[in-house]
Amino acid sequence: MSVSLRVLDDGAWVSVNDSRQVSVSELWRLDAPEFCSCTVPDFVVENFQSVGVDGRTITANVYGQCIQCGETGVPGWIPVGRLKNGEYVDLDRENVVLPAHDGHEN
Length: 106
Ligand SMILES: [Zn+2]
Fold this sequence. Notes:
Blueprint: E1 5-8, E2 13-16, E3 19-23, E4 27-30, E5 42-54, E6 57-66, E7 72-73, E8 77-84, E9 87-90, E10 96-97
Parallel strand pairs: 4-10
Antiparallel strand pairs: 1-2, 2-3, 4-5, 5-6, 6-7, 6-8, 8-9
InterPro entries: DUF8134 (IPR058447)
Protein name: DUF8134 domain-containing protein
Pfam family, one: DUF8134
């Protein structure tokens, strides 16, 4: 299975199979205790650094900010979608998403 993953417009979009799927300015509830001290940071996506795939999970390395405490940075590879029969399927990113801390191969 091959999938085309790209970051477009200087990090504004994640493109999957030449279709723009995930954009900046989304608010994600992030379960990332290493990122900041908030229990569940409200994380605003500001820039996609890169995109990859881990098994069937599309992951993105994103720069953003916790709007609760103001911490900025890159919390890690965050699942943003899945591949199902080669098609992109959105994850519900307004709920808690778990950064993939290890096992990622890019
Ligand atoms: Zn925070």
